[in-house]
Design goal:
The protein is an alpha/beta fold. Helix content is 35%, strand content 23%. The chain is built from seven helices and 17 strands. A hairpin with a 6-residue loop joins strand 11 and strand 12.
């Protein structure tokens, strides 16, 4: 038997002891049926105390996997990332979110960092094991506002990625590092893309994931509103502007990083590289004991005794109502009521 109290045991005792003392005094002074009533209340208090202690029986074991890896996600947030050619006519960002979730599931225990880029590169989330916060950040992620767009470079995140990987290597040299780049490879400034070649020696594995089609997809206007999008589309020369994937650029980024390039489509399963060799295995990571909780037994006792108290209270209320109800008595006749005097 083990206990996992919701509060410190001494604090629980301090809270319950005065009430228990009052119940014992009342029990000693009570007579007849009142003694049974106060005994029941004392049992209820004891059941509450046991419930707060959270008793349980240790049993079973669950193997865990710890991935000693730092993973940096580099996500394109230019207007083209919401081009509607993913899974037919859905925005590419939907595909990015789904693939990030698959990566999180594939490498349990890893630390993740999120870098986004459009006209500039930003570290949205430093390395953390809080994958819930990571997924939430992607759910609310919106591309740059269309009216403020001045073109972007697919390599603008190069220096920020280098800094993030370098800091991770200095802080935890024993951990491996992976990089996943998400984008369509579309360069919308006249200058050539900045190379990522300075990051290869800092990257142990990863992938460049490309989104979009050769036919291209239309892009909705993006705003700074709550939902971040408009019902209107970006136009060029009187027609909807189309964003087209540039796989040559994406393959060049993959070569710079020393990782594989993969064109992503909704009907193709994401192929992820194996975790680097520093990742611990299931056997090495040990096991975490599980506990069969027993507090619910005490909770059932409390519920049952409360039911008795409620039934008793209902009976007393009904009895009081009967006592307060006016009694019906026959009316006495007076000399003025009809007939002779």
């Amino acid at each position: 038997m083990i206990f996992q109290p919701v509060l410190n045991v001494f604090l629980l005792a301090l809270l319950c002891a005065p009430v228990a003392a009052l119940a014992v005094i009342a029990l000693a002074k009570a007579k007849g049926s009142d003694r049974a009533l106060w005994a029941m209340r004392l049992v209820m208090l004891l059941a509450c105390f046991v419930m707060f202690l959270r008793p349980g029986i240790p049993g079973g074991a669950t193997e865990t996997l710890a991935t000693d890896t730092d993973i940096v996600l580099v996500v394109d947030t230019t207007a083209s990332i919401v081009a509607e050619d993913w899974n037919g006519d859905e925005p590419r960002l939907d595909g990015v979110r789904a693939d990030v979730q698959a990566i999180v599931d594939e490498y349990p225990g890893a630390r993740f960092a999120l870098i986004t880029f459009d006209a500039s590169a930003d570290l949205r989330m430093p390395l953390t094991t809080d994958t819930t916060a990571l997924v939430s950040s992607l759910e609310v992620l919106r591309p740059e506002v269309t009216s403020q767009s001045r073109g972007s470079s697919i390599g603008i995140a190069n220096q920020l990625l280098t800094d993030t990987l370098s800091n991770a290597a200095e802080a935890s040299p024993d951990r491996s590092r992976m990089v996943f780049y998400f984008g369509d490879g579309e360069q919308t400034v006249t200058s050539p893309p900045e190379p990522f070649d300075g990051n290869e020696e800092l990257t142990d594995a990863g992938a460049v994931l490309g989104y979009g089609t050769a036919e291209g997809g239309p892009m909705r206007l993006t705003t700074g509103g709550v939902d971040g999008s408009s019902s209107e589309y970006i136009e060029y020369q009187g027609a909807n502007a189309l964003s087209v994937i540039d796989e040559a650029n994406l393959e060049a980024i993959a070569a710079d990083l020393g990782v594989e390039y993969q064109h992503r489509t909704a009907d193709a399963e994401l192929t992820l590289p194996g975790a680097p060799s520093t990742t611990t295995s299931y056997a090495e990571s040990g096991s975490v004991g599980t506990v069969t909780e027993l507090y619910w037994i005490a909770a059932l006792v409390v519920v049952a005794l409360l039911g008795v108290e409620l039934a008793r209270a209902s009976m007393l209320v009904a009895r009081l109502r009967l006592l307060r109800a006016p009694s019906a008595s026959p009316r006495r006749k007076t000399p003025t009521d009809g007939g002779a005097a």
